[in-house]
């Protein structure tokens, strides 16, 4: 503050961590855009919106071994919304679980990176998620199994705001608090978008914090594009000493990090013109 | 699939033709198509039928129901991505005298909402029209979206009428017919740019009726859905090789037009081939086989159908070839069975 060297203070260390997470998030965005370019389409806007959360997960929260994706003591990270596969592949590539050169096979015949995430295809993909609303119920069982094994691993279930429409999500939410699953951390991407339009219009879902809280969950709601806020919330959830499941609700902006996509009219499938992939990569380059 | 990462760069596929994207057209390049035939037919019918309402589970845009929703916004119910609620609520509104057309993808109706359809709609014989996109193998998106066993699942449900139209013409004519049917109906939907095929034939959709689209002396193809289109194309190609192929289109899967099937299959001397966009288990093929055996009609019999397996993700043309339901594959199989 007054001339003393504070590089070793927690605040400084925190800043360095957040800068590193921001760098990771930008790389995740780049990988996702490059995959989108391979197919000329994909859920790129979702990936851009969710990249900060994925960076906080894969570079701060999760325990894993890149060379051994099935390591018994890893934290389990379930992609319930399988159509976000492009986002998770990007994170798995950045985490060294998948090789970067597979980007060019994205979504192609016989690739390990199909457009919808499937456990049987891809190392690091814990569950098959194309049928929405199944992740949280599966997470319940994984949490119960880990507890039976006295494992200290956490289970992170990533889900979308559209999945809040499914009864199975709330059946599982009730089950999680009944079973006192303190090894469960749900992460909800609230991008206010689903297939037919803005989620708030398709099926109103607020007040979200109160809803989860009333189901017996510990709740944090953060700006999902504020990496510091996301990583702090995840840390708080891990450290919480209370026998209940936890949820981090992340409000995100689709297309985040690529200004012209962030500004574009929001749809489930964002339009990206052929020349725009290169522009997007430019904007995400290290110099930018 | 696990050695994909070591594939040499030369093998790199031409991307867009080989995509496992969810949205894929079954139309061949250059084929005549019409946009959203279901949505337009329903909107047209609803203009004179105020009891018709539309309901969807966050898939209005992807089941062509958006056309109806734009025409009749106050008769459209967005139920959110909640297929069980969609189906039970459709049963509820039908109880109050309305005719709901409820749409989602075939997998989510057949798999997730089955119990709700069974008890809240079909056991009561309520006039709910369940219309579902992505039947059989019409998306390369993988097993989560490939409804390869929807007919098997729904054939097991008493009271339920099942329709598998071939093209835009079939869909347009089926919509008023299923609306008029007093009970529940499950219709497999082809959406988006849908091929126009049956306009070249003297054809009208009639619920419960199979129609002979062309005659031939060597093979009788019995087919439904898009496999009727493939059978007609294959028949043309086989004719060029001197093989006469009859095509009997059976868009109503249940109740099956057993009279027509028995009389055509009983004409004798022809190889009977049932072609369907569905698993070899429990679909049209086994329905026809049971019909024939029970009546003591036993021609040589083969099935063109998807294997009893979870199918790959990939581009539709690749997968239709791989699993034997492309026109090329139909021609190949029929020639093989005839030893030609
Ligand atoms: C059970 C189920 N119902 C319907 C679908 C079809 N579908 C795919 S994505 C989607 C929208 C879901 O909302 P969300 O995940 O929030 O969408 P996004 O934010 O990606 O636009 C729907 C309805 C599905 N995959 N699974
Ligand atoms: Mg969403």
Major sheet attributes of chain A? 5 strands, parallel
Low-confidence stretches of chain B: 1-17
The chain-level structural class of chain A is alpha/beta
Radius of gyration computed on alpha carbons of chain A: 18 Å
Give the ordered list of helices and strands of chain A: HHEHHEHEHHEHEHH
The kinds of small molecule bound in this structure are: thiamine diphosphate, magnesium ion
- Name the CATH superfamily classification of the largest domain in chain B: Thiamin diphosphate (ThDP)-binding fold, Pyr/PP domains
Mean pLDDT across residues of chain A: 95
As laid out across the biggest beta sheet of chain A, the strand order is: 1-2-3-5-4
Largest sheet of chain B: 7 strands, mixed
Write out the strand line-up for the largest beta sheet of chain B, numbering strands in chain order: 3-2-4-5-7-6-12
Number of domains of chain A: 1
CATH class call of the largest domain in chain B: Alpha Beta
CATH class of chain A: Alpha Beta
Describe the structure.
The complex is a heterodimer of chains A (288) and B (340). With 288 residues, chain A is α/β, with parallel strands linked by helices. In chain A, 42% of the residues lie in helices and 10% in strands. A five-stranded parallel β-sheet of chain A has the order 1-2-3-5-4, sandwiched between helices. In chain A, α1 packs antiparallel against α2 and α2 crosses α8. Chain A is globular and about 50 Å long. With 340 residues, chain B is α/β, with parallel strands linked by helices. Chain B has two domains: 33-195, Thiamin diphosphate (ThDP)-binding fold, Pyr/PP domains (Rossmann fold); 208-338, Rossmann fold (3-Layer(aba) Sandwich), CATH 3.40.50. The two termini of chain B are 34 Å apart. The relative contact order of chain B is 0.12. Mean pLDDT of chain B is 94; it is low at 1-17. Chain A binds chain B through residues 38-42, 82-83, 99, 101-102, 104-105, 107-112, 114-116, 118, 121, 128-133, 162-163, 165-167, 194-196, 201-203, 268-269, and chain B through 1-2, 4-5, 7, 9, 12-13, 15-16, 18-23, 56-62, 66, 78-82, 84-85, 107-108, 111-112, 141-145, 312-315, 318. The structure holds thiamine diphosphate and magnesium ion. Thiamine diphosphate sits between chains A (43, 46, 81, 83, 130-133, 160-162, 191, 193-195, 199, 268) and B (58-59, 81, 108, 112).
């Amino acid at each position: 503050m007054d001339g003393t060297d504070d590089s070793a203070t927690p605040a400084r260390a925190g800043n360095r961590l957040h800068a590193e997470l921001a760098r990771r998030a930008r790389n995740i965005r780049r990988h996702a855009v490059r995959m989108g370019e391979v197919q000329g389409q994909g859920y790129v806007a979702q990936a851009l919106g969710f990249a900060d959360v994925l960076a906080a997960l894969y570079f701060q929260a999760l325990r894993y071994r890149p060379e051994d994706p099935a390591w018994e003591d890893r934290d389990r990270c379930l992609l319930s919304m399988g159509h976000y596969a492009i986002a998770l592949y990007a994170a798995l590539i950045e985490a060294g679980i998948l090789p970067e050169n597979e980007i060019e096979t994205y979504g192609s015949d016989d690739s390990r990176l199909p457009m919808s995430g499937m456990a049987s295809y891809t190392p690091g993909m814990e569950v098959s998620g194309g049928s929405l609303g199944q992740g949280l119920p599966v997470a319940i069982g994984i949490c119960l199994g880990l507890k039976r094994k006295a494992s200290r691993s956490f289970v992170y279930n990533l889900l979308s705001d559209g999945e809040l429409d499914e009864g199975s999500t709330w059946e599982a939410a009730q089950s999680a608090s009944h079973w006192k699953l303190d090894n469960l951390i749900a992460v909800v991407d609230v991008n206010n978008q689903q297939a037919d339009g803005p989620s708030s219009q398709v099926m109103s879902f607020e007040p979200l914090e109160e809803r989860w809280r009333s189901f017996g969950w510990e709740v944090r709601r953060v700006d999902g594009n504020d990496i510091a806020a996301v990583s702090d919330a995840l840390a708080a959830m891990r450290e919480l000493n209370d026998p209940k499941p936890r949820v981090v609700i992340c409000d995100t902006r689709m297309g985040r990090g690529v200004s012209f996509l962030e500004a574009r009219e929001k749809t489930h499938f964002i339009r990206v013109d052929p020349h725009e992939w290169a522009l997007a990569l430019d904007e995400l380059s290290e110099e930018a | 699939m696990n050695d994909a990462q070591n594939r040499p760069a030369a093998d790199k596929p031409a991307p867009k033709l080989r995509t496992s994207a969810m949205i894929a057209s079954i139309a061949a390049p250059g084929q005549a198509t019409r946009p959203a035939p279901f949505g337009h037919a329903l909107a047209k019918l609803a203009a004179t039928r105020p009891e018709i309402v539309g309901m969807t589970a966050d898939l209005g845009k992807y089941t062509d129901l958006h056309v109806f929703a734009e025409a009749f916004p106050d008769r459209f119910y967005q139920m959110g991505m909640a297929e069980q609620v969609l189906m039970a609520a459709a049963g509820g509104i039908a109880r109050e005298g309305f005719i709901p057309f409820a749409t989602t993808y075939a997998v989510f109706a057949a798999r997730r909402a089955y119990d709700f359809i069974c008890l809240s709609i079909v056991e009561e014989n309520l006039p709910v029209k369940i219309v579902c996109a992505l039947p059989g193998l019409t998306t390369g998106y993988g097993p989560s979206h490939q409804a390869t066993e929807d007919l098997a699942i729904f054939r097991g449900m008493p009271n339920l009428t099942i329709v598998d139209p071939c093209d835009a013409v079939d869909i347009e004519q089926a919509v008023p017919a299923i609306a008029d049917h007093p009970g529940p109906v499950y219709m497999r939907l082809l959406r988006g740019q849908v091929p126009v095929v049956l306009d070249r034939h003297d054809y009208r959709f009639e619920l419960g009726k199979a129609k002979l689209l062309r005659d031939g002396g060597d093979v009788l193809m019995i087919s439904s859905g898009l496999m009727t289109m493939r059978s007609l194309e294959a028949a043309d190609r086989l004719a060029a090789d001197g093989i006469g192929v009859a095509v009997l289109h059976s868009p109503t899967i249940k109740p099956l037009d057993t009279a027509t099937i028995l009389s055509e299959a009983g004409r004798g001397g022809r190889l009977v081939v049932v072609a369907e966009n569905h698993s070899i288990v429990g679909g049209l093929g086994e329905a026809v086989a049971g019909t024939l055996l029970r009546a003591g009609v036993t021609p040589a019999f083969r099935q063109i159908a998807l294997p009893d397996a979870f199918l790959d993700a990939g581009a539709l043309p690749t997968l239709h070839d791989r699993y034997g339901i492309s026109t090329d594959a139909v021609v190949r199989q029929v020639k093989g069975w005839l030893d030609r």
